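Appendix B. One record, verbatim.
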Amino acid sequence: METREAIEDWHYVVPVAHAEEGIVQGLDIAYGKHAMQQLDIHRPAEAKNAPVMVYVHGGGWWKGDKADVGKKMTFFVDQGWLFISINYRLLPDGMHPVNVQDVALALAWVHDHVGAHGGNPNQIFLIGYSAGAHLAALVATDERLLKAEGKELSILKGVISLDTNAYDVPTLMQSVVSRYYGGIFGDDPQVWRDAAPFLHVAGGKEIPPFLICYSSGIGATPSPVRPEQANALAKKFKTVNIAVEVVNASDRNHREIDAWFGWAKDDVTRKAFAFLEALRKQPVRPTNSGNTF
């Protein structure tokens, strides 16, 4: 049973690395008026028109911080990318849809302002881990969230979803792990449907390509929920011709899939970077929103 206590015990903080030579950091930049609506920008010193990775941290929707980036920040900056890590409101204040609305607001800010920091607004990618993977998948499938901020899904060039159970929330709430998730999504089936990326998948919405990665889970026994949810979402994408890849990373647990991401020899990292590089070579996704730099 994946209880709240078990998930929080497995969540751990790897603080952001100290700024290294050649890395410029802008910390605690406000993207909104709430105290939690802040982001950190990490970039190469000579960044110009660089691709941009926006990171949504994990922590079970209850905890976590934009500093919890592990090796991801140095990995991407070393590759010449801007790496932007965002905070969002956490439970109980950040009950759905407040948390994902924060993510949408942060993405709108990035699209409008990243050019001034050496980033390319036409090369914005999104990665989320655990609870952050759910939020990343949701903001990239429910077009209403970005539209509320004057943006289109086409501002996102690709999404990496790093290990979450919460794609099809109504089905999740009927599963063996529902005891924990009741504290996240409550008891209203309409909220479950609204919070489910799976149920927002449709053609003609400019949903970006996805790389869906899943681990063995939290406990000693591999979780059947993670591959079920990941593969069901991928199948739904394929039915409407949205590009998707699934990475079976069940050789590692929920903590390790995050901790190992950014190691040069890590298989998930290599597959993720190949996914990103292939997307970067594709034409700019058309958009009618945002500023032109």
